[in-house]
């Protein structure tokens, strides 16, 4: 395809679903501060607050190194996504890019898999929230709390996107403020020696209690899937592209905050916590942040932190309900999903897709009823592999886009990923290693058992839908990127 053919494409979606962002129908109600906080808050959730307990028990202080290396890969992924977003900011995001650069089949699989990821993640978050409630009252059944939170968050999504952004802004603000507070208190314990932990708190905990690698490098490697799960949802900022007021300004700014977010909220928080309290004190299923405050001797502080991590889980689930409805609508508009999901409400919200997704999240309530002690591990393992697929598609789409852009077939993005294409190749190899390690870990292996089943469902449904509607799965010319929005430097 020539650049002239590319330029001749309009950015208007026709009745068959081709095209891009011009007539998506969403309201661009998300401002800069909301996008920034959604980007920050998306990476602070269950994986850090609850999942870190299990990871610490497996890897010890070396978990810090695991987060640092994985964080670097996350930055590569986000810069690859950023380059694609500046080429064409659409709410379908990486599903749309997979459809354009890898083929309609890959866009189909990516859209449905990412939708599944958020449905399963929603189960994870309400599971975590129900676990946090038992900190105050163990008599409340875990499944009851999970049911109540799912219903409440569903109704929270029956608002305008502007109000959604405002709620997420304050949710994220609570999480950020809490982590900053924990870090400052921990520094106070280390330097001033106050509280019950003051006499024993020391940075030497990072290497004195069995060494930095107490279970060897192998123990650290076996936690990488938990580490990667903790970072999942950072890509959610790409889904907001269709509703951001100034996507080519706000999205690059949000993506460029990834390094310091990881350094402060993950590495900084873990270094302080593991210095104040030895890693041997932490157990799977217990938030290390809550445990640290209890060891310090501040029970009120532990209760406050428990409330914060509860809101973090609910915030992440709320974001999941936001993204599932939009992903289903993107599939519908492209003829790769039921037409039922294409309609928007008067407020510009894809409520049909959100409603169906929320109903399926109630499966998480049943999981909590059947296996309350194992529910978190089950849903984390399956959510991880679904989320990793989205990252693989981002990197693969970026490699294809960069090749076409360098050849002059497509316009160059003004927000190029540094070090590309090698950074994207490294990211793909790293994720491949995580897949292999998940196969070795008996606790995470269940997700690999489920993956072939999901792949078979995708392949069979693809063949059926392609036969019914060949146009929806036919290769289309590259849509022209929207030229009216000034690109960020």
From TrEMBL:
GO term, biological process aspect, one: amino acid transport
Ranges that cross the membrane: 37-56, 62-81, 101-120, 140-164, 176-197, 217-241, 262-282, 302-322, 349-369, 375-399, 420-440, 446-465
PROSITE patterns: AMINO_ACID_PERMEASE_1
Keywords from the UniProt entry: Amino-acid transport, Cell membrane, Membrane, Transmembrane, Transmembrane helix, Transport
Database matches in Pfam families: AA_permease
Family membership: Belongs to the amino acid-polyamine-organocation (APC) superfamily. Amino acid transporter (AAT) (TC 2.A.3.1) family.
Protein's name according to its UniProt entry: Amino acid permease
Naturally occurring in which organism (per UniProt): Streptomyces morookaense
């Amino acid at each position: 395809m020539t650049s002239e053919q590319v330029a001749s494409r309009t950015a208007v979606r026709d009745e068959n679903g081709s095209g891009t962002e011009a007539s998506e129908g969403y309201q661009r109600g998300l401002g800069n501060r909301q996008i920034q906080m959604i980007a920050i808050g998306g990476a602070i959730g269950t994986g850090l607050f609850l999942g870190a307990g299990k990871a610490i028990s497996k890897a010890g202080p070396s978990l810090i190194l695991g987060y640092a290396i994985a964080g670097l890969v996350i930055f590569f992924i986000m810069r690859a996504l950023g380059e694609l977003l500046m080429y064409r900011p659409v709410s379908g995001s990486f599903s749309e890019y997979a459809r354009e650069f890898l083929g309609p089949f890959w866009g189909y699989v990516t859209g449905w898999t990412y939708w599944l990821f958020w449905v399963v993640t929603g189960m994870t978050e309400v599971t975590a929230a129900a676990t946090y409630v038992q900190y105050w009252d163990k008599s409340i059944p875990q499944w009851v709390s999970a049911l109540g939170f799912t219903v409440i968050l569903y109704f929270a999504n029956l608002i305008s996107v502007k109000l959604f952004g405002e709620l997420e802004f304050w949710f994220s603000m609570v999480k950020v403020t809490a982590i900053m507070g924990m870090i400052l208190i921990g520094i106070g314990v280390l330097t001033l020696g106050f509280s019950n932990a003051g006499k024993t708190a020391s940075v030497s905990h990072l290497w004195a209690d069995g060494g930095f690698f107490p279970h060897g490098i192998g123990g650290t490697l076996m936690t990488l899937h938990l580490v990667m799960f903790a970072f999942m949802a950072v890509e959610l900022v790409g889904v907001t592209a269709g509703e951001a007021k100034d996507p080519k300004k706000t999205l690059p700014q949000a993506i460029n905050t990834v390094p310091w977010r990881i350094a402060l909220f993950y590495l900084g928080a873990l270094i302080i916590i593991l210095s104040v309290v030895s890693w041997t004190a932490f157990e799977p299923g217990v938030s290390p942040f809550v445990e640290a405050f209890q060891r310090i001797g501040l029970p009120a502080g532990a209760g406050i932190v428990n409330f914060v991590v509860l809101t973090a889980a609910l915030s992440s689930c709320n974001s999941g309900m936001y993204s599932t409805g939009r992903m289903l609508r993107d599939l519908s508009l492209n003829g790769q999903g039921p037409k039922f999901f294409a309609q928007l409400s008067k407020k510009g919200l894809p409520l049909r897709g959100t409603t169906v997704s929320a109903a399926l999240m109630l499966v998480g309530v049943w999981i909590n009823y059947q296996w309350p002690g194992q529910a978190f591990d089950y849903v984390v393992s399956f959510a991880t592999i679904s989320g990793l697929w989205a990252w693989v598609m981002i990197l693969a789409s970026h490699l294809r886009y960069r090749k076409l852009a360098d050849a002059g077939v497509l316009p160059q993005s003004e927000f190029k990923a540094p070090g590309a294409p090698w950074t994207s190749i490294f990211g793909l190899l790293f994720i491949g290693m995580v897949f292999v390690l998940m196969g070795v870990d008996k606790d995470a292996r269940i997700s690999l058992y489920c993956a072939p089943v999901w792949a078979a469902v995708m392949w069979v449904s693809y063949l059926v839908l392609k036969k019914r509607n060949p146009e929806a799965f036919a290769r289309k010319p590259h849509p022209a990127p929207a030229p009216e929005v000034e690109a960020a430097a």
